[in-house]
Amino acid sequence: MDNISTSDIVIINGNSHPDLANSVAERMGLKNGGCSVFHKSNRETIVEISDSVRGKDIYIIQTGTKDANNNIMELLIMAYACKTSSARSIVGVIPYLPYSKQCKMRKRGCIVSKLLAKMMCTSGLTHIITMDLHQKEIQGFFDIPVDNLRASPFLLQYIQESIPDYRNSVIVARNPGVAKKANSYAERLRLGLAVIHGEQKEAESDEVDGRYSPPPTRNSTPQHAPSSSRQRTTSVSVGVPEHPVKVKPPLTIVGDVNGRIAIMVDDLIDDVQAFVAAAEMLKDNGACKIYVLATHGLLSSDAPRLLEESVIDEIVVTNTIPHEVQKLQCNKIKTIDISILIAEAIRRIHNKESMSYLFRNVTLED
C-alpha cells in the first residue's frame, strides 16, 4: 500500500484494540497519534490528546469488546475532544459495532442501536467505517455516511487455501436466519447448502416483540360491515384473534452432509451453545469435519472451553475483536488479519477515492 501524506491525517485509538490500530497505522506508513485514554478511581473516562488536531482528518479506531459500555464512552469522548479542538473531520473506525444485535423492537424495550447512532452523530463523528453489521439496515440509523466493509473475501480465501479438499464441503446455516449469508458463500464457492431447522435455537423472528402487546381483548364485540359489503367481508367471532403460537418441529438438517466437510458461517460468534449443538447434530449425520467461520469472535464467558471440548475441528474469526486470551484457552481458534482492508478504506476516504473497489463482487446477501 502506498504511503499517504502525514501532514493532515491523525490516527488515534482507545483501549479496545490497540494492536489493530497499530497494525493499521503501520500498513499506512503512519505513526499512531498521541492519545491517552484512562479511567479515574471513580471509573470516569479521561481523554488526553497530545498532538494538535486543528484542521486535520482524525480517524478513531475503536471496536466493540466484552467491555462494550466503556468502549462506547471512550469513543464518544475522543470524538467530542477532537470536535471541540477544531478537527476538520472525525471518522469512527468501528470494526465491530456494539449493540448491533439490538436493532429491532423487543416487547417494551427499545432499539438500542438507533440510540447509539444518535449519540455517535452528536459527539462529532462525521463518518463511520464498520464491518459486517448484524443487519445492513442499521446504516439508516445514522445521519452520517456509513461504510459497511465485508470480511467475506478473506473468509472465502481461507476456505480455498486452508481447508484441504474444500470441494467436498457443504456450507451450513445453523438456523434459517443465516441461510441468506450461507447461500452467498455456497454460490461463490460453487458448493452445496444445508440448513439446520428446528427447536434447538430460536431465530430472531421468533422472539417476543411489540406485536404481542397489548393482549387481545376477548370481550369486545366485532364491528360488522355494512350490509352491502357483508358478502365480501370476513369478520372474526369474538374480539381480536390471538396470535398463533409457533410450534417448531424437531431439530433436522435440510441438505446432505454425510461424508462431507461442514462449514458453518455467521457474522458473530459469542454464546457458542447453539454452534456446539449444531456441530453435534452434523457429526451425528455423518459430517467428517466441522468448521465455524465468523467475522466477529466475541467468545464471551466459557465459550473457549466449550469449543475446545466440542466436536468442532476449527473456529476461524477475524481480528475485529481482540481474542488473544481466548486463543490461549482454545487451540482450535484461528485468526485472519483484516487490518489491510481497514487501512485501504481509510486511504480511499482520505484521498476522496471511490469505495466501490472494496465492494466488488459483493452482493447484498453477504
Q: What would you say this structure looks like, in words?
A:
With 366 residues, the chain is of the alpha/beta class. It contains 9 helices and 14 strands. It has helices spanning 18-27, 68-84, 112-123, 152-162, 179-189, 273-284, 303-309, 324-329, 339-350, and strands spanning 9-13, 35-39, 45-49, 57-61, 89-94, 127-131, 146-149, 169-173, 192-197, 252-254, 261-269, 289-297, 314-318, 333-336. Strand 4 (57-61), helix 2 (68-84) and strand 5 (89-94) form a beta-alpha-beta unit. The longest helix is centred in the first third of the chain and has 17 residues, at 68-84. It is globular, with a radius of gyration of 24 Å. 36% of the residues are buried. Mean pLDDT is 88; it is low at 362-366.
Q: Can you describe this structure in just a few lines?
A:
The protein has helices at 18-27, 68-84, 112-123, 152-162, 179-189, 273-284, 303-309, 324-329, 339-350; strands at 9-13, 35-39, 45-49, 57-61, 89-94, 127-131, 146-149, 169-173, 192-197, 252-254, 261-269, 289-297, 314-318, 333-336.
Keywords:
366 residues, alpha/beta, 9 helices, 27% helix, disordered C terminus
User: Which overall shape is indicated by the principal axes computed on the Cα atoms?
Assistant: globular
Helical content (DSSP H or I, runs of 4+): 25-40%
Low-confidence stretches: 362-366
Number of strands: 14
Q: For the residues shown, what is the average pLDDT?
A: 88
Total helix count?
9
Category from helices, strands and their pairing: alpha/beta
Instruction: Going across the biggest sheet, name each strand in turn.
Output: 10-9-8-11-12-13-14
Give the N-terminus to C-terminus distance in angstroms. 26 Å
User: How much of the residues is beta strand, in percent?
Assistant: 15-25%
For the largest beta-sheet, the strand count, sense and barrel status come to: 7 strands, mixed
Radius of gyration: 24 Å
Topology as a string of helices (H) and strands (E) = EHEEEHEHEEHEHEEEHEHEHEH
